[in-house]
């Protein structure tokens, strides 16, 4: 299975650092040149064009929510791919989302993909601190998807990156806890929780 991160802003960089810490190869793509930043983060990051990044088995979207449709149009097919939604639709009116959770609305731009919400609930600075908390526990990353197999595969990735995966169930159920609705954050947004094994 291969991975790509599209968007290397604060959240995308924090996720890329997690891959680099574990030496897991990941493509990184953005609208701006990334060679220097990718080299600084670690040798397991491979700068790519967005057109190449969308070919990965697992694509992590770490772009502003408003740009997701542009990314969706790049791939010839999203069929069977796992798309990890690390975006937040804060300040997007619910009517623009057709009343759906943001991940369900975003899914329309990625027909055939298996959407998983993850890596979006922590501020970038907290996520960049890595998987271990000061108390020695593993930092929790919440996961939500309507596809159980995709959710399980993302939980495995989260675990490989050193974090503690906590599955919340379906996007329209437990997943609402990590989704913004208009100018309101879900109840688990910003919650820096740890799991002690």
From TrEMBL:
It holds the Pfam family F420_oxidored. GO terms for molecular function: oxidoreductase activity. Residues 3-88 form the Pyrroline-5-carboxylate reductase catalytic N-terminal domain. Keywords: Oxidoreductase. It comes from the Bacteria. InterPro entries: NAD(P)-bd_dom_sf, P5C_Rdtase_cat_N, STEAP_metalloreductase. This is Pyrroline-5-carboxylate reductase catalytic N-terminal domain-containing protein.
């Amino acid at each position: 299975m291969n991975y790509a991160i599209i968007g290397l802003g604060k959240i995308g960089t924090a996720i890329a650092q997690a891959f680099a810490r574990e030496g897991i190869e990941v493509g990184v793509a953005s609208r701006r040149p990334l060679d220097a930043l990718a080299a600084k983060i670690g040798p397991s990051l491979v700068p790519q064009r967005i057109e190449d990044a969308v070919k990965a088995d697992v694509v992590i979207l770490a772009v502003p929510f408003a740009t997701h449709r542009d990314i969706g149009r790049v791939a010839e097919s999203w069929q069977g791919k796992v798309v990890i939604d690390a975006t937040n639709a804060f300040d997007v009116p619910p009517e623009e989302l057709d009343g759906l959770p943001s991940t369900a609305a975003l899914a329309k731009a990625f027909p055939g993909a298996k959407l998983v919400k993850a890596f979006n609930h922590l501020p970038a600075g907290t996520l960049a601190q890595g998987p271990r908390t000061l108390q020695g526990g593993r930092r929790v990353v919440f996961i939500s998807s309507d596809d159980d197999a995709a959710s399980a595969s993302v939980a495995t990735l989260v675990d490989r990156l050193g974090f503690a995966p906590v599955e919340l169930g379906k996007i329209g159920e437990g997943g609402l806890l990590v989704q913004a609705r208009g100018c309101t954050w879900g109840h688990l947004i910003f919650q820096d929780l740890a799991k002690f094994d």
